[in-house]
């Protein structure tokens, strides 16, 4: 039974990763693509790793999957934010139909 639940988590993770890859191709600007890739990693890859943990259990592989999941949950959103801020400071323009630019409003 736990193997089926693990496979469900892996399937959900593959779905999120696929949608994130589509977002990288289809979205119009750097900032939207960063958002898609960050969601892809945090939701998709962490779901896959949790499914691997459920299947493996508390073995060396399962513990490594949990550690990788924790590392990704802590670092992926921070890295996405840092890349978006650096792109904004470097002068990368938003998509022409973007509605709001909070960084420009703050004067940063």
What's the SSE blueprint?
Blueprint: H1 2-26, H2 30-56, H3 60-89, H4 102-106
TL;DR?
With 108 residues, the chain is an all-alpha fold. Helices cover 81% and strands 0% of the residues. The chain has one domain (2-95, 100-104).
Can you walk me through this structure?
The chain is mainly alpha-helical and 108 residues long. It has one domain (2-95, 100-104). It contains 4 helices and no strands. It has helices at residues 2-26, 30-56, 60-89, 102-106. Helix 2 packs antiparallel against helix 3 (60-89). The longest helix has 30 residues, at 60-89.
Keyword list:
108 residues; mainly alpha
Strand content: under 5%
Structural class by SSE content: mainly alpha
**Multimerization state:** single chain
Query: Roughly how much helix do the residues carry, as a percent range?
Result: over 70%
Largest sheet: none
**Total separate domains:** 1
**Rounded average pLDDT:** 89
Give the radius of gyration. Answer: 17 Å
Q: What's the number of extended β-strand segments?
A: 0
The succession of helices and strands, N to C, reads HHHH
Termini distance? 52 Å
Helix segment tally: 4
Global geometry: elongated
């Amino acid at each position: 039974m736990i193997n089926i639940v693990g496979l469900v988590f892996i399937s959900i993770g593959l779905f999120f990763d696929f949608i994130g890859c589509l977002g990288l191709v289809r979205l119009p600007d750097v900032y939207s693509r960063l958002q898609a890739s960050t969601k892809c990693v945090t939701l998709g890859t962490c779901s896959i790793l949790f499914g691997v943990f459920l299947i493996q259990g508390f073995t060396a592989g399962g513990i490594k999957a949990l550690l990788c999941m924790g590392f990704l949950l802590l670092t992926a959103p921070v890295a996405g934010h840092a890349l978006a801020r650096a792109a904004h400071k470097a002068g990368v323009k938003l998509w022409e139909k973007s509605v709001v630019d909070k960084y420009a409003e703050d004067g940063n």
